[in-house]
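Q: Can I see a sequence and its folded structure?
A: Here is a first one.
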Amino acid sequence: MRQPAPDFTNAFLATLGVLLFMGLLTVAAIWGWAGVVFGALGFDRLAQPLARRVRR
C-alpha cells in the first residue's frame, strides 16, 4: 500500500506570500522611479521658460 503524499500546503503558502511581497515591492519601486523621472521632466519643462527670462 502506498503512503499518502506529504502536505506541502503551508510551505506553498509561505513561499507564495514571500514571492507576492517581492513582486509588489518591485512594482512599487518601478512606479517610484517612473514618478521621479516624470516629476523631473515636468519640473524641467516648467523651469525652462524661467531660465530663458533670467538669461535675457
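Q: Show me another, different protein.
A: A second, unrelated one:
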Amino acid sequence: MRDASAVVRELRTQRGWTQQDLATRARLSRSFVADVEAGKPTVESAKLFDLFQALGYEVALRDLTTGQVLR
C-alpha cells in the first residue's frame, strides 16, 4: 500500500497545484496539507478524505478476498 502522503503530493503536483490551491479546494488549511505531505501521523482521517475528494478521488473499502467494494 502506498503512503497517503506520497499519493496526495503526487496528485497535487500532477495538477500543478500548490499546497494552498489544494487546501482552498478542500476547505482546509495549508498547514494541514503540509502535515499530510510530511507524513505527520496525527492528521485527521476525515480531513484526509476531504483532500482526496478535492483531488477528484474517493476512498472506498475493498474486500481483499473477493474484491467487492463496500458501498
